[in-house]
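Structure first, sequence second, as always.
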């Protein structure tokens, strides 16, 4: 137990460090904000990815091993104790934590204590006796809680190590592969709900997933929004973010050559000259040019749409500018226009095969807490005296003070005031 406490303290410190240090940044990023020496230390100790580092995994592994061994070593003793709490032989040889003498009807005392029906037995010297016990499962509270914590750690840790993550983005009508899973994601519809001040209230996407690995490509559909994911084919789909997309139309010598919808941040190679590339840097629905700050948008409404583009030929930048809705870009015999701005959706896809383990761990931990705090193991026994009355004993290892008070209230009615509280 002392080693477990030490491990928990070290783990808490490690989590604190991981929370204080911004994760997933480069050496240059840390050097700019701290110093080169501090940045080198952060990278050397893997503090930039603390929760996936070897030392963090080692601490967690030792804690899991400690919990496992603690539970294994305590198991035989706990089984023996549970059996002993249900047997009268050991109890009849001792006095209880609280005793009432001269009780006329011990069974009534058992009923008032909400004990199960007592079993008849005899003491070693042949006296008639009664015995009952309840809530022996409460002895297992800490053990079950430790087991649940162990399952939680294993489920979360293994899930983080084996978790698959994908990102799919597009506009309604797009059908795109989900990584290498063999499944396709179709974006059926996407809406952005705005508040009166043009801030986003909610993103909602209707999606259909096709399993191309199965015969007939069965499909499942769902509606997802921020904080309301859906599970399809064992994968979880999250509405992650949104952005702007636009239709790009390419004419060659005035004749239609190419048409495609691209999202901000995407390239479009020209069909018959792939070394000529158009890049949509950004879209401004209500374009304004702020002196000293560059292009911006005055609102989220499509009042004055503008497209910020870059053109490259063989990897060399040809030019960069903002095109208004009625303007065109001309490069040699090609005329390029942007139109039909629309929102695209970015959907995060995750598959964690160990989520059920973590879920079971959480439920087992909750069960352990319920056993520990709400089930108080108790036992009571009565021995007939020579005058025909009974001496009733009670014991409760948890919550003893409350049990003694209830016991005296239950037994005092039939004891004629003959009660004794034992240490």
């Amino acid at each position: 137990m002392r080693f477990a406490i030490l491990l928990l303290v070290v783990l808490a410190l490690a989590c604190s460090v991981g929370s204080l240090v911004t994760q997933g940044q480069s050496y240059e990023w840390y050097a700019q904000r701290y110093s080169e020496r501090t940045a080198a230390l952060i990278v050397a100790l893997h503090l930039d990815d603390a929760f996936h580092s070897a030392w963090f995994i080692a601490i967690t592994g030792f804690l899991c091993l400690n919990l496992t061994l603690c539970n294994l070593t305590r198991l035989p003793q706990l089984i023996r104790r549970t059996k002993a709490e249900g047997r009268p032989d050991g109890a009849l040889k001792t006095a209880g934590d609280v005793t009432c003498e001269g009780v006329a009807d011990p069974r009534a005392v058992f009923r008032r204590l909400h004990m199960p029906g007592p079993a008849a037995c005899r003491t070693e010297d042949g006296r008639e006796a009664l015995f009952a016990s309840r809530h022996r499962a409460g002895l297992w509270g800490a053990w079950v809680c430790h087991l649940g914590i162990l399952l939680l750690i294993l489920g979360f840790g293994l899930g983080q190590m084996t978790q698959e993550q994908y990102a799919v983005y597009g506009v309604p009508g797009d059908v795109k592969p989900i990584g290498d899973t063999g499944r396709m994601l179709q974006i059926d519809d996407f809406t952005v709900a705005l508040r009166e001040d043009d801030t986003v209230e909610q993103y909602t996407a209707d999606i259909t997933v096709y399993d191309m690995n199965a015969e007939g490509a069965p499909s499942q559909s769902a509606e997802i929004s921020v904080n309301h994911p859906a599970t399809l084919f064992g994968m979880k789909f999250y509405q992650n973010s949104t952005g702007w997309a636009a239709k790009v139309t390419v004419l060659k010598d005035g004749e239609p050559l190419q048409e495609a919808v691209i999202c901000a941040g995407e390239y479009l190679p020209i069909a018959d000259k792939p070394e000529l590339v158009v890049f949509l840097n950004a879209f401004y629905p209500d374009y304004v040019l702020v002196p000293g700050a560059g292009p911006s948008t005055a609102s989220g409404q499509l009042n004055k749409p503008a497209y910020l583009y870059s053109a490259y030929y063989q990897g060399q930048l040809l030019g960069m500018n903002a095109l208004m809705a009625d303007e065109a870009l001309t490069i040699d015999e090609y005329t390029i226009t942007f139109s039909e701005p629309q929102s695209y959706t970015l959907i995060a896809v995750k598959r964690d095969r160990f989520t059920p383990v973590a879920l079971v761990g959480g439920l087992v931990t909750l069960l352990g807490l319920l056993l520990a705090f709400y089930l108080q193991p108790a036992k009571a026994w009565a021995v007939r005296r020579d005058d025909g009355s009974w001496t009733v004993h009670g014991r409760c290892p948890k919550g003893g003070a409350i049990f003694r008070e209830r016991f005296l209230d239950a037994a005092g009615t039939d004891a004629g005031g003959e009660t004794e509280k034992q240490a």
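Margin note: The CA atoms of residues 26 and 233 lie 36 Å apart.
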